[in-house]
Amino acid sequence: MRASLQAGYVLHTRPWRDNSLILEYFSRELGRVAMIAKGAKSRKTRGGSSAALLQPFTPLLCSWSGRSELKTLTDCESAGQPVPLQGRKLYSGLYLNELLMRLLQHEDPYHTLFDHYDAALGLLSQQQGEEIALRQFELRLLDELGYGFDLLSDGISGEAVDLDCWYNYHEEYGLVLASADASDRLPRYRGADLASIKRGDFSGEARRCAKRLMRQALATHLGDKPLKSRELFQHLD
After folding, report:
1. pLDDT digit string, tens, across residues 170-199
2. Measured between alpha carbons, how far is 50 from 128 in angstroms, rounded to an integer?
3. Smallest Cα–Cα separation from 229: which of 117, 89, 114, 131?
4. How far apart are CA 1 and CA 70, in angstroms?
């Protein structure tokens, strides 16, 4: 298989042997691709070593070849300026990358998801865009993977969410009306907050609601292994 100048972003790199890298690349047309960048630490480009170019959050055009799951990078060039992320925003970007690494299969195309990822990076670079970028991307990621659920209807009864009622998240059904039993300790989400999230309004209590709900919904698919990017956030708090 040969792929020529595919638009995408590096999600993660790790050293391989003396001067090479193994990288995970998220391309718009061909999805997540693993490849070896041979001699990347010593190979020169206009800006220095090619390893300096193969960094997350830099739009790239990459070419590769190979029949196995691990391809060989044959060419790479910049397709734009790196997205400027620092501090919490940098950790938020790493969190998005880690979600894609954990949840996407290799070489399954996700054209729309790639566009959502690109848009999320743009929002992260804005002064007040962090919360919106993360929550919207999480929702769209679940939808694209086939795990999405309706924020405005009860997954069992089909009835519209009542703004004054409370709901639980259920892995199979989505949101369902919470039990009146006071001993029920499952996380609860108020209908009014769910409606705010649906409108894209993450202010006030809806912000906390969306964060709890997305963490619960994603946990089912991420498994027990903790996210390294979340550990980075703990050092900031």
Report:
1. 999 999 999 877 557 889 999 999 999 999
2. 33
3. 89
4. 11
